[in-house]
Amino acid sequence: xxxxxxxxxxxxxxxxxxxxxxxxxxxxxxxxxxxxxxxxxxxxxxxxxxxxxxxxxxxxxxxxxxxxxxxxxxxxxxxxxxxxxxxxxxxxxxxxxxxxxxxxxxxxxxxxxxxxxxxxxxxxxxxxxxxxxxxx
Length: 136
Fold this sequence. Notes:
Heme binds at residue 79. The mean pLDDT is 85. The longest helix has 18 residues, at 82-99. This protein has a two-stranded antiparallel ribbon with strand order 1-4. Strands 2-3 form a two-stranded antiparallel sheet. The chain has a domain at 1-79. The chain is of the alpha+beta class. The chain is built from two helices and eight strands; from the N terminus they run E-E-E-E-H-H-E-E-E-E. The chain has helices spanning 34-37, 82-99, and strands spanning 11-12, 17-19, 22-24, 29-30, 100-104, 117-118, 124-125, 131-135. It is globular, with a radius of gyration of 18 Å.
């Protein structure tokens, strides 16, 4: 929902290319809008809703082969930390869930949370999410 950087690093077209009906001349600079890919209704049902369950039973992976979902980039420039992230995620998330109960700062309920975005060089939430751990 919130990519760290909305546009990937610029690329140059190595040859004349037809991309979705548009002619991209050789040497053109191309920017990939990851933010827009993640909100494309032709790819995602309810693209503006956070629904991680949409990936259950899906063939889509995060390893850069499915260009509808590229949180770690793709191709030769894929994130070198991907294998470590895949191994550590379960351990870290499991430790946080088992060690604490969580609440939103200021007593806000999840339904009242502001999910608007603030655009800049990076995409940020308009009001930062602040979850407070409560010792079990």
